[in-house]
Design goal:
This protein has helices spanning 13-21, 75-87, 93-104, 111-126, 168-171, 179-186, 190-196; strands at residues 3-5, 25-27, 41-46, 49-54, 131-134, 145-146. By secondary structure, the chain is of the alpha/beta class. The chain has one domain (3-192). Strands 5-2-1-6 form a 4-stranded parallel beta sheet, with helices on one face. Helix 1 (13-21) packs across helix 7 and helix 2 runs antiparallel to helix 3 (93-104).
């Protein structure tokens, strides 16, 4: 069964688990942009605890595919620096980090393009074709498993077993972060972790 998901910036583990456990994902391409959601935000575990990285956007457009990224502030440099300080000591950082840095330095015009690239990167790392299609119109009720409501403000009902994290000893285990956390810490074993989540 396909799952219907909203677009996400370096999607969280919950989002990725649903994607991996399904036959593929259909992305909602006809919704309105909602701020303070995974559409423009990702969470990582920094040395001082949970860190929220947000992509600043221009507020002119409401349609998700047309939301332009704002470059008035140098958020790309901030995100690269934050990811580096959070994961430089992770086991798979040196292998994967160049891909992340290259992606962020591409200067995408829209949030949709940036998110597509981050989802495609995760698909590439997993060697899976996750992105199957996108919606042609908005529908409140669909024949698919509708997971458009995955949101940082709503605690996930998934159970997240702990795994080794860089600052686990200092800040404790942080669950349901960006899947970046999983990949940097577990490498190829990320697939097994995502498959077993309930």
């Amino acid at each position: 069964m396909y799952v219907l998901l909203s677009t996400a910036y370096f999607p969280p583990i919950e989002w990725m688990a649903h994607a991996v456990q399904s036959n593929g994902i259909v992305l909602e391409a006809n919704e309105h942009f909602q701020k303070q959601t995974y559409r423009s935000r990702t969470h990582i575990a920094g040395p001082n605890g949970l860190q929220k990285l947000s992509v600043p956007v221009e507020r002119k457009s409401k349609a998700i595919k047309d939301v332009a990224i704002s470059f008035r502030e140098n958020w790309v440099k901030d995100h690269i620096k934050a990811i580096e300080s959070a994961y430089a000591n992770a086991p798979y950082f040196e292998v994967l980090y160049p891909d992340v840095k290259a992606l962020l330095n591409q200067r995408f015009e829209t949030l949709w393009e940036l998110n597509q690239a981050s989802i495609a990167l995760f698909s590439q790392w997993l060697e899976l074709d996750l992105l199957k299609e996108e919606t042609s119109e908005y529908a409140a009720i669909t024949g698919m498993k509708d997971l458009r409501g995955i949101n940082p403000k709503t605690p996930s009902d998934m159970n997240f077993p702990s795994y080794g994290q860089v600052f686990h000893h200092k800040i404790g285990f942080q669950n349901n972060l960006s899947a970046l956390d999983l990949f940097f810490n577990l490498g190829r074993s990320s697939w097994d972790y995502l498959k077993t989540l309930k």
